[in-house]
Specification:
Elements (H helix, E strand, L loop, with lengths): L1 H10 L6 E5 L3 H4 L7 E5 L5 H17 L4 E3 L5 H9 L4 E5 L10 E3 L13 H6 L1
Length: about 130
């Protein structure tokens, strides 16, 4: 994901980028010159505590009034948080389950890279 974020920031230097990630992965993004903020999603000690932490994160994100969310993961939690955060433009791949959660769908970019299997970096840049 970091090559894609660097490309976005290079194209639009004024763009404010926030990455939402779970706790084990936040260090990958912390301190990156192209990322303005890292929102760390914690898990609770049980399912109720985890749900509460997700609601709190959604509220925090809502207060930041994001214009656009790019979902590189596509799981139910990320879809839920985009909606709870009230992000008006939500972008995901057109093969994701729960496609109706997105306002904009992106087709598989493999044809632009020769049509065969592509690396995750190529997928996200495409």
């Amino acid at each position: 994901m970091t090559p894609c974020l660097r490309a976005l920031k290079a194209r639009w230097p004024h763009l404010g980028l926030t990455v939402l990630t779970e706790n084990p992965f936040h260090e990958v993004f912390t301190g990156s010159a192209c990322i303005d903020d890292v929102a760390v999603l914690e898990r609770g000690s049980n399912s109720i505590a985890t749900a509460w932490k997700r609601f709190r994160m959604g509220w925090r994100l809502r207060q930041q009034s994001f214009d656009l969310a790019l979902n590189y993961h596509g799981d139910p939690t990320s879809r839920f948080l985009m909606r709870l955060a009230g992000v008006p433009r939500r972008v995901g791949y057109d093969w994701y389950f729960g496609r109706r959660a997105y306002t904009d769908l992106v087709a598989n970019p493999a044809p632009h890279f020769g049509g065969g299997p592509i690396h995750t970096v190529q997928l996200q840049l495409g």
